[in-house]
Amino acid sequence: MDSGIKRPGVTSSEVARRAGVSQSAVSRTFTPGASIAPKTRAKVLAAAKELGYRPNAIARSLITNKSRIIAVVMAYLENLFYPDVLEELGRQLAAQNYRLLLFTGSMARDSDPVFDQIMQYRVDGIILASTSLSSELSEECAAAGIPVVLFNRTTERDAVSSVTTRNREGGRRIGEFLLAGGHRRFGYIAGLETSSTNRDRYAGFAEALAEGGHTDIAIGTGNYSRADAEAAAREMLALPDRPDALFVANDHMAVAVMDVARYEFGLSIPQDLSIVGYDDVGPARWTSYGITTMSQPLKRMVDATVDILMEQISSGEIEAEHRILSGELVVRTSARVPESGVVEIDGRRVFKPKG
Amino acid sequence: MDSGIKRPGVTSSEVARRAGVSQSAVSRTFTPGASIAPKTRAKVLAAAKELGYRPNAIARSLITNKSRIIAVVMAYLENLFYPDVLEELGRQLAAQNYRLLLFTGSMARDSDPVFDQIMQYRVDGIILASTSLSSELSEECAAAGIPVVLFNRTTERDAVSSVTTRNREGGRRIGEFLLAGGHRRFGYIAGLETSSTNRDRYAGFAEALAEGGHTDIAIGTGNYSRADAEAAAREMLALPDRPDALFVANDHMAVAVMDVARYEFGLSIPQDLSIVGYDDVGPARWTSYGITTMSQPLKRMVDATVDILMEQISSGEIEAEHRILSGELVVRTSARVPESGVVEIDGRRVFKPKG
DNA sequence: CTGAAAGCGCTTACAG
DNA sequence: CTGAAAGCGCTTACAG
What region holds the HTH lacI-type domain (chains A, B) (predicted)? Predict the structure, then answer.
């Protein structure tokens, strides 16, 4: 048994020489579905093993014009929702035999240089989470035949697909829940004001409250960041007529807001203040927080994302597709629980009015 | 001004034709340092812009034998420490003009298929965080001339570099801190028992306690996972003679342990029970937890990792290098504070005995 | 400074 | 089923 140590440059030609076959035969051995005699194949495989040969994916990409690489652009990982998404994406892309090229951090905010990289590597698809895309860039991708999917964002752009949840309905549901809980003064800590998720969640929330006769909503801006959410909470909770019910646009901020309410204002949750979040991310489930929150079905969202990508890659047709999934209002301890409408499904409590 | 839309296959030859120069000239225009006349360069650049040309990184890789891709293998992102690391790695690699190919999740645990991918893509370097590497694979990388750096792990393997912090000293420091706080019964919630970090942290902790005359340490195993840590805490806190001081091998588990102690056992922290963690990750700083913890200097650890990689890539010499950095015991509210030894540095409280 | 040419390691018609 | 050959889009000696 040889050790299988690979010297820097083992090529298919070397394997061919060793196996006494042509270089084409070596290539066919490593191409699923190529026509090759079992005997030849065995010889090649043996030689390959001896030399520690592995096909060069770079050379293969050059000729097939497929890199089997998907670019994932994720501006910030601070919110655990995104690492969770990343992990699931990694799993599913690997299962489809695709690799994941990650672009994060500050560089991801200014999309131009990132897109230069993406185009240079001739990725087969692009997933944009927590980032948007300028119209020129998205058109450029479409023109180049590269499918783009927005994750948890949406846009009017023609060529860009998206996967989201019913944010507006989610916002409505939260409004109904807080109304049913008998709250009287409402507040909203917003996410990034330019994001579609934030707009939709707020719109639904305001709608529901208006139907309940409440048009006065205190608004603070958290920009989906902890520090901004804390500042917004401080301001809002210092109000003479402070809200007794707060919808915070995601759990990541809700955690920070709860700490401010409890430890800086001495408020009891939910007795003095009800807080509802969005996402149902890890810390929402931790006992210290127990956040009542609209869940986003992460796994199904990733399923849909990968599905759209695979479909567009294999068909070569880039037609924008918008998948919209539903979440549930998971009831925990951070908000007063209404008398009715809360049911237990699969071991968790969920708010389903008129059910 | 042209729109710059890129058709699928703009190549250097097409740009050359358009600019009225040779294909070599186009290549030189996009190769930093190549000898090209400013005038020629300008013509090429103009033509490239008109056609929306970008050099094909795949083709370039094939001939230069450098992919400018670094593989990052990160088994699990659940612990926020790792997303933080990932973000910083992304930033620093981008600054050095390298791309980051991410391998996560379950597939990362079984290293063989992952390594097959890594080798096929001819990555220029490999960073392993929260994963180890079998001896054959590390030797194979070394033989292939691919530098490997273990992040927050170490190993005896010859060819594999590592970046860690002084885990043993950290464990000692924590032991000293808890002794100075006047605790009498000690417990340890371990991480993965096979990991070097866990071994070293425990060894230092036990050493310090032994010097203080305590050789009896209650031990539970949390495997760096929340669920396991919770189970271990339940068991340990139900002990007739339960510890009044707990060292939990990382903050990720410490958060879970605190919730169990408070909400399942009704314990006050730190009055009934002191808890010290490790890492100084996000939630440790949240007011609900305020974990006293050994910090790991994440940015400097990433600096060191990238530094080792860049050095080995440019020199072509793979000689294992082990960088060991120091953290500090950051004092917050989860553990009783000793009378002396706690000093304030740069606005944070730190335990520095005999200082 | 420039262009013609070789070649990186593969895949894939093509002819047998 | 197999091999010889062309070619993917570049970089880089080489000669001028």
Answer: 10-64
- The reply to whether B23 Cβ lies less than 7 angstroms from strand C is yes
* CA geometry: angle B252, B276, A227, nearest 5 deg: 55
Between the alpha carbon of residue A201 and those of residues A277, A311, B134, the distances in Å are: 11, 30, 48
Q: How many residues in total does chain A contain?
A: 355
**Sign of the torsion angle spanned by Cα atoms A198, A309, A62, A8:** positive
Separation between Cα atoms, residue A185 and residue A237, nearest integer Å: 12
Q: What are phi and psi of B142, to 5 degrees?
A: -60, -45
Question: Poorest-confidence range of A132-146, A271-285, B287-301?
Answer: A132-146
Give the per-residue pLDDT at B5: 33
Question: Inter-chain contact A86–B78, Cβ cutoff 8 Å?
Answer: no
What's the CA–C1' distance between A109 and C8, in Å?
35
What pLDDT digit, counting tens, does each position of A101-139 carry? 999 875 555 667 788 888 899 999 999 987 766 666 777
CA torsion, ordered A93, A94, A98, A104, to nearest 10 deg? 60
**Section B319-343 average pLDDT:** 95
Among A118, A121, A115, smallest CA distance to A135 is for A115
Reply yes or no on whether the pLDDT at A3 is more than 80. no
Give all domains of chain B, ordered by start, each with its CATH number.
Answer: 12-55 (1.10.260.40), 66-165+298-325 (3.40.50.2300), 167-291+332-351 (3.40.50.2300)
Query: Is the Cβ–Cβ distance between B59 and B49 less than 8 Å?
Result: no
Among the listed ranges A223-237, A283-297, B120-134, B250-264, which one has the minimum average pLDDT value? B120-134
Contact B101 A100 (CB under 8 A): yes
CA distance A172 to A216: 16
> Which amino acid appears at position B57 of this protein?
A
Give B275's DSSP letter.
E
- Look up tokens 């009704």; give the residue: B266
A24 CB closer than 7 A to any strand C atom: yes
